[in-house]
Amino acid sequence: MTPEEFRRAGHAVVDWIADYWATLPERPVTSAAPPGTVVAALPDGPPERGEPVEAVLADLDTLVTPHLTHWQHPGFFGYFPANTSGPSVLGDLVSSGLGVQGMLWATGPACTELETAMLDWLADLLDLPKRFRSAGAGGGVIQDSASSATLVATLVAVHRASGGRWREGGVDRRYRAYTSTQGHSSIEKAARIAGLGADGVRVVEVDPETLAMSPAALRAAVEADRADGVVPTIVVATVGTTSTTAVDPLPEIGAICAEYGIFLHVDAAYAGAATVCPELRSGHAGLEYADSYCFDPHKWLLTGFDCDAFWVADRGELIEALTVLPEYLRNAATESGAVIDYRDWQVPLGRRFRALKLWFVLRWYGVEGLRAHIRSGVALAARFADRVRADDRFELAAPHPYSLVCFRLRADDAVNAELLARVNASGRVHLTHTRVAGRHTLRLAVGSPHTTKAHVDEAWTLLSAAADTLLPH
Amino acid sequence: MTPEEFRRAGHAVVDWIADYWATLPERPVTSAAPPGTVVAALPDGPPERGEPVEAVLADLDTLVTPHLTHWQHPGFFGYFPANTSGPSVLGDLVSSGLGVQGMLWATGPACTELETAMLDWLADLLDLPKRFRSAGAGGGVIQDSASSATLVATLVAVHRASGGRWREGGVDRRYRAYTSTQGHSSIEKAARIAGLGADGVRVVEVDPETLAMSPAALRAAVEADRADGVVPTIVVATVGTTSTTAVDPLPEIGAICAEYGIFLHVDAAYAGAATVCPELRSGHAGLEYADSYCFDPHKWLLTGFDCDAFWVADRGELIEALTVLPEYLRNAATESGAVIDYRDWQVPLGRRFRALKLWFVLRWYGVEGLRAHIRSGVALAARFADRVRADDRFELAAPHPYSLVCFRLRADDAVNAELLARVNASGRVHLTHTRVAGRHTLRLAVGSPHTTKAHVDEAWTLLSAAADTLLPH
To answer: A Pfam family name for this chain (chains A, B) (predicted)?
Structure first.
């Protein structure tokens, strides 16, 4: 494809996306088609001779978009939203066009340096401790996801706990990771990948009201493990759990980690974005104890997946744990020690120029725009929670400090599951569920910049109407 | 950003990329600026108020592109190229615009099903064994890179070798991975991440001429380990090593793996793409022994990074090793068992809709176009190798079955290092180096669809002229 062919086809694809976004509100949020529908509609193989881009765009409309869950729909309230934005898409388009592979500073100096700068900008925006800035001993890097950030933190923690033997000798003792009963599934997955096994994770009890990790329970677990010859290795504390956005108490947890020499990783995948607003930073109290921290701009900061921002307080320890330097990657810049080679900060070797989408987003919105986006989400969630509170048939299942509301009908699990199924079947909204205190609970997470009062109110109207038909009169 | 604002800005960004590509041949391939140049030129933080996209595009021209290594430049011959193409960029643009997160089938049915179909298409194109198709017990998935594919293969292998205890109990014995002295650095990194340690990798000797793994040396290593109580767990065989594109003998290696019950992963990261051409499939002989296989469409198949295609023969074993299912991800489709949830096939939870770029590439080029691209690269490498062969001052350092030529001046390491530095300093081409039999060796890897005879001949002219000044007369 020549540059001129790309120019023409590129305009057509941009127009297609603009049209998709403009028509999103009218589309059903999810597809009702059964598994296998798309595969069955595709040919068995690629064409022998090439086809024009227009043919593929036409098939997008018939084969792909009718069978998607539309994450950018203003009525998408599931999981945590993964909201992108125009400037993010454009930044990523530049990244694709440049086609730079930033494994080393030398393979794309601007790719590496813009990333370092963007992570420093974000550290300022979130008011993270100074130790995470690149000007000191720390620094930030873009991971694909918080799962990978947790894995990297786990590896560095095991390396440290082993006294450095892990690099060569592997897992040679019983190392243990701690998180609360509300911690993300990626924590167990990271422990498994790191060779600690699922048994290498101890799940710590939470306060029954706040669903935040109990420091007393953590201390008891750590002491029991030490007595048992197990090495307490890493605590993953969560600011904004996936289930309910509970906030673990970092001051108390951090003090315990400091006392016992345990690596502290703070997973703020969703809620970290909120701390661009000074009034939403209370969850960061105690963050000065953390050895590493991450949040996902792709969750609530208008940046397309994949973009997890991960910081460490000691980059030397991270690099020592992960570096492998074969001859074919040796170069003068690396040997000088004056540059960052981000390949040593992550699992894969290669990497995209993902800092561009952050740069585009931060400049298009500015600090004010980002704060307005977060505040809008928090206000919409509060508006929805007010509806729930005002209706005796419903109850809130957990606090809602950010933009997620957990709620249920005052009825059994089967009725709540049916409620969820009915409102989702409308095609107008998409909510997901969790369990709180063992009970089936609905989750409404606001995240899209296109979600307005009207969409939240429509969700409430659908829920209320479904409740009318589900509850006895 | 509204859809209409996106439409206008999107056209501008597309034009910017088209102009970048059109002017690439005139740009120096690499930047001469010292470390810190880009960071120093950036402001200390984001603007308070948003800025227009045009301001960012202007800064791209002054801050970013002058300080890149231009991987898409027709004179880029370094590492293995990571070549993209217009249709790949457009497919990725659609992915960014849709903003779908495909962790589960339910979170994007078309995202999952198109990926399954594209991996089946590729399996046909490469003539992979039937066991890797989704219609049987296997199937394919897109990983970010071959590094991650190797890691996943290692995890499944340890799970199998442990008799299933690994999931809960972690690394409980001495498990060992095998690769040749020419195996990629990601194999050691995967072993380290998996908790086997660098000592968990045994590096097997190669044939001194072909640089392919010696089956006799592998057998001896396996038997010595077994006698020592170490569990031979995985062999990573390479089709097209990074250093010289050597091809390990799969029939002999596979038979040893079968005899001792060792998991066989085949890393064809670069050379796998070549097998779209029937005449370049000899390296796949013996592939029926493999438990898993990967290649990178982002290396030599016109698809932008990141796109590694990874297949397993037994998807059940893979899913068993990696799945964790928290309540908030439970859904009817998953429970039915009728769908693929790709989150269980990889390290991270979230995932982009990367199948789109493959779909766009396969349809734009068609089978004929892909084959023409590979054949062009092989022919250009042969043309360059002929120049080397015809000049007594130079020698070839290894066979060149694909599109990489390893060569050197008949002179010492210092002279060859200086030769490399001088031709790269021209700004017209970029080559990298390796060591072959302990000697400094230059690598010229052809990959870009924009690289023509003229660019390869220019590289030769520069090398020859530099040799004139470096060698005694």
So the answer is: Pyridoxal_deC
